[in-house]
Amino acid sequence: MDYRVIEELAIPNDSKMVLVVLDGIGGLAIPGREGTELHVARRPNLNLLARRGSCGLMDPIMPGVTPGSGPAHFALFGYDPVENNIGRGVLEAAGIGMDLTPSDVAVRINFCTLGPDGRIVDRRAGRIPTEECERLCEKLQRAVNLGDGVEFICRAVKEHRAMILLRGEGLSGDLLDTDPQQVGLEPLPPRALVDTEESRRTIRVVGKLLTQAREILADEPKANFILLRGFAKNRHYRSLQERFKLRGYAIANYPMYRGVAKLIGMDLHPVTPDVRSQFEALREKYADYDYFFLHVKYTDSRGEDGDFDAKVRVIEEVDSYLPIVTALEPQVLVVTGDHSTPALLKAHSWHPVPVALVSPTARMDDVERFDEVSCAKGILGRFPAVELMALMLAHALRLKKFGA
Amino acid sequence: MDYRVIEELAIPNDSKMVLVVLDGIGGLAIPGREGTELHVARRPNLNLLARRGSCGLMDPIMPGVTPGSGPAHFALFGYDPVENNIGRGVLEAAGIGMDLTPSDVAVRINFCTLGPDGRIVDRRAGRIPTEECERLCEKLQRAVNLGDGVEFICRAVKEHRAMILLRGEGLSGDLLDTDPQQVGLEPLPPRALVDTEESRRTIRVVGKLLTQAREILADEPKANFILLRGFAKNRHYRSLQERFKLRGYAIANYPMYRGVAKLIGMDLHPVTPDVRSQFEALREKYADYDYFFLHVKYTDSRGEDGDFDAKVRVIEEVDSYLPIVTALEPQVLVVTGDHSTPALLKAHSWHPVPVALVSPTARMDDVERFDEVSCAKGILGRFPAVELMALMLAHALRLKKFGA
Question: Could you tell me how many CB contacts below 8 A there are between chain A and chain B?
Fold first, then answer.
């Protein structure tokens, strides 16, 4: 897909586009049940969308490739998922609302407990409360001084987990975790994946950070050190506005998805208590944006749990909220997933996901049900997720004619 | 689609290939009718082709992209439509039979009427008759002298419309229209889209042309000046013969389509009075060529009019002529469109178009009807139009085996 063409054709208008992502929606049959989680779910509203719209089956990245959440969502937003593959650290940092510069290196940290011999006693420092984590992050933030033109920014996430940014020129994101993944061992020293001038500089900076952290935290009873993992360097992303003339709004409750949305310039809705309030947020903010991304996490979570029936219940719950969206009559409404998470596999999978695209400019095919097998026979055929944005823009009449 | 491979494999043989293009054939349902224009049309012969052949759904350029006629036809002939996107001026100049060199700049002109104050009184010079236009073009042709190694070639098109070629080295096609699109204003001076040495040279040449035209036409009562639009520079195209070993013949009545066909080396059938005579022309010329392009314009025209029923009638008319082609038993017969022009939208659209490919070497699928929804389930699946030529060549046994 040559998105340079699409970007040259993109024009603004007054239409509204809504993308509802049921994370990990695609499934597989399990013994004793008729079909996948979708087949089994009572889903009158999803089926109504399938009947009213154009259906298809979408490969998250390319056939056979199981995606992480990052690339899967970049693709849904029209960003090449291979080109735009980025470390989890950056996505989570953006997702918890940290403002990153394009050259920042983000690192996930765990507070941990070291014994008197310097070996790890508890990799999670007894899962300290989040308020405790906040106090420790402020303590580090006040005392750490990396010098050498490198700024240190620290933010608590949850319990023993926090996030840091290393801000400065010439830093690398190609460092390995210092967490040995096992108690009884010493934390690993900072090491690089590849030996470059930048990685050597970053090893020096991180070494200094670890030395300082050990001193600063020495008097803490539990959280007396930090383990670093998920080093990732940010980069510049052209925004949805720049590329497609879209003001985007993300209604997503988990950091990863908030992170991707933020990196490409969407505004983020505050975290909501439940799925229903996500749909209500869409209604409240409907006048203010062009493109809405509503992300439901729990289909994926229950799939990862291997709990077929619980995933079915999440689908049924989301189905019941869909009339809130359809009542708004967006020019383009797409319901789909970012990938499959079959309960059978308890993990993400490569299987393509069903898509229903509803619009006054969409062709109605004869698909009557929203599931993997029915949608495979739809008029959209099978296509890679990265093409979805162009299809949505086209149906919203937001793409000019190409050529004379 | 890597056409270098296809070109290396192409071999000549005695087979005949026929491509029937119903311009803008794809449609959308309108309220109160069951399905698209194709669904509604009585189309026994189209359905027979769908039953006998392999069916599919074809994206003109790429998903979501609405093409102009130029790129849509380049794709149908196996030319990358993005690489080969070219200005309308060139296509129309070629289409009215002007012989272009690869470095010519083509410009569409309107004769117009200026008032004594130099402002435009009539942008179409009262729609002077075509013979009058021919006289004025001859007058310009005799008197204009651009010097500087630039040749001026002028040809009447219809009523107030004509075409000029600027032939010389180092000219640019990136100039803006001089037509301000409004009466009461002065014509705009020549300006460039981008400032380059070539565009500055072209501005000087065009400035000279406008000065001379004003003098030459000063004594004309109506057509006393010209407005320039659609500047476009030609380029070199490798021919169907060079690329695919095909002698091509185009039976098309409108300049744009004749233009594309001519640029890639097809011979052009003289303009015919109606659609039936286009099919008869195919029969007459059948012995002389390998590849026939038969272009029916009116499906698109009625779609652009927003006249659903009139478009249905054009489909039914074309359907009635199809036995003329099938009686010839070409090795490969493809019926399809260059893009959709749903009456609902009164414009070209991005929706993919149905394809039926009939050949003794084609797999028969179970598609029974020629329409968008039925063909979507065909054995050709969904594919971009640029792949069609390779499919046609293959079914004509005109591609050697690739590799050992």
Answer: 95
Residue B303's SS3 state is: helix
Residues 6+ apart with CB under 8 A from B67: A401, A402, A403, B60, B61, B75, B81, B338, B339, B348
Q: Is residue B107 a contact partner of residue B229, using CB atoms and an 8 Å limit?
A: yes
* C-alpha to C-alpha distance for B38 and B352, rounded to whole angstroms: 13
Spans of all domains in chain A: 3-84+237-395, 93-233
Please give the Cα distance from A245 to A233 (Å, whole number): 27
For residue B74, the surrounding DSSP H or E stretch is helix B69-76
Which residue reads 């406008």 in tokens?
B210
d(CA A54, CA A383): 13
Q: Note the pLDDT tens digit of each residue in A16-60.
A: 999 999 999 999 999 988 899 999 999 999 999 999 999 999 999
**Any chain A CB within 8 A of the CB of B97?**
no
Dihedral sign, CA of B371, B377, B380, B383? positive
Nearest CA to CA, how far is A98 from chain B (Å)?
A: 35
Structure confidence at residue B33 (pLDDT): 87
Whose CA is closest to B262, among B250, B275, B278, B244?
Answer: B250
CB A58 within 8 A of CB A72: no
B377/A382 CB distance under 8 A: no
Burial class (CB in 10 A: 0-12, 13-18, 19+), A362: buried
Fold exhibited by the domain B3-85+238-395:
Alkaline Phosphatase, subunit A (3.40.720)
Q: What is the ipTM of this complex?
A: 0.91
Q: Alpha-carbon dihedral of residues A310, A316, A318, A322, nearest 10 degrees? A: 170
Contact call for residues A249 and A285 (beta carbons, < 8 A): yes
CB contact under 8 Å between A364 and B91, yes or no, is no
Contact of B303 with chain A, judged by CB distance below 8 Å, is answered with no
A248, A267 Cβ separation under 8 angstroms: yes
What is the CATH T-level fold of the domain B93-233, as seen in this structure?
A: Alpha-Beta Plaits (3.30.70)
State the angle between helix axes of A197-216 and A130-143 in degrees (0 to 180), rounded to the nearest 10. 110
Global pTM value: 0.92
Quick one: pLDDT at residue B1? 80
Q: Is A7 on the interface with B (CB under 8 A)?
A: no
Using a CB-CB distance cutoff of 8 angstroms, which residues of chain B are in contact with residue A366? 373
Question: What homologous superfamily is domain A3-84+237-395 in, according to CATH?
Answer: Alkaline Phosphatase, subunit A (3.40.720.10)
Q: How far apart are CA B399 and CA B394, in angstroms?
A: 5
Q: Which two tokens stand for residue B323?
A: 């036995």
